[in-house]
Every structure is written in structure tokens, then in C-alpha cells.
Here is the input.
Amino acid sequence: MSLALAGRSRSTFSFAHADAPPVVVHVCVPPTLSSRTGVTFVLHGKLRNAAEYLEPWVPWAAEADQIVLAPCFDREGWPGGRGYNLGNVFSGSGRRLPERQWAFTVVEALHERTREDFGLDDEQFALWGHSAGGQFVHRFLLLKPRAQVRVAIASGCGWFTVPDLDVGFPYGLRHPALPFTDEHARALVQKPLVLMRATLDTIRDSDLRTTRRADAQGCNRYVRAGHMHAAGKAIDAGSPWRLLDVPGVGHDGARMALAAQRTGLLERPRHGPA
Here is the structure.
């Protein structure tokens, strides 16, 4: 990356971290770039169409003084839901992979690279993802508890990893290779998570997981978001988790992106004169 990217509508570059598969990153850098510019990640859905996902964020990047990064976790390097939705934490054979190979770690490392290359002073960043990307976002908070996330908005999730130690992973927190405890669950529900759901996202289409354990969370995406929110509040009624309804919208990533922008939640707080 270089300062020459500033003000372009969009650019791409390849990013490799440790021995994880490389990702192509689609990025928009605002013309207002300075050390005070913020960073927002946009996580694509199951189609791995990061370039398309970045499009509705280009005008917002300039308005909000944000670098917007949309990494593409392609099917070859990050296969199936295991490789992307679940962060590449486990191999196809069920073996826990080293943390340096996780998709979550790639995002964390990409933020550090962005801060370094552009001289940004903010240690925090924001996350927004829709559908499979929404699944990625809420699990990022679980598997990367020390990451400096300002806000994480999980939009249109098909199903969730619920903070319940009695439910087996990936639907809950019980797994022999992931020694989660009550303390982990309590810490998770203190994270700045927004569960964004569209009021018309109630169709049981072919992309919705309809297994027994998924249906235990509800019959559709709208209901399942409510189930996840209730699970967090059951652990701590004072949890900052928010449930945000978007009226009149179905399973539409572009319209949910615009709705997320309108909330103002993704923008870096501004202190003092510009």
C-alpha cells in the first residue's frame, strides 16, 4: 500500500501474512487521509465477492474519513464455511490450526499493516459483514478477544456461535480444542457487537442452514439474530450487545450496508477541532 491510493475510488493489492493463504484486498482510501483517519473492514458473503461488497462503501469512505478494506477470502485458500465463516480455525480433518493461519488473524495483521503504511494513530478498527461475513464478524470477537475492535456489526447471519458452554461448537462454545469457560462467555457479551437483521429476511432459502442444531436457534435469519441477542443478555442483562432491525429489507447486502452507514456506529469518534 502507499499514499498514492488516497482519493482513488478503489484499488486492490495482495496481502500475505505468515504462512496463511494470501488474500486480495479491495480498498478505498479517502481524499481526507490523515493520521486521524479510521479503518473499517467489510466482510463479504459466501460468494466471495469482496469487490462487489466494497462498492456501496466508496462514497461513505470519503464522507466518514475512513479507509475501507474488503479482503477476499477465496474458495481455494479458504474453502467452505470452515475456511471462511468459521475463520479457518480448524482443518478439514478437524485439527485445530495454528493461530497464524486463521482468517481472523489475517484481518488483525492487515489492520496493523494499514496503520503502519498510512501512519494512523487509532489503534481501533470497525468490522461490518453480511451473511457469511456477518458470521465471520461475530466469531472474530470470540476468537480474537484482545483485538482492538471499536464496533462489530454482524448483518444477516444465517446462524450463530451462541455463548453457551452446554452447546457444542460451532453452534456453542463447547469444544475440547477450544477451552472456553464462563469467563470467556462473560467477556464476549461485553464486546461491542451489533446484530443487524432485516425485517423481511425471513425466507428459508437454499442458502440458509436448516440442520437440527441451526433450527434450534430459530426458523430464519431474523429470528436467529433475536436468539443470539437473548443468549447474550441472559449472561449479562447489562451487555452492550444491540439488536438493530432494518425495516422493509430482505437478505440484501448492499441495502444493509447503507443502513449500517446511516447508524453512525462505524465512524471513529471525533474529539476537538478537525
Residues 103-118 form the longest helix (16 residues).
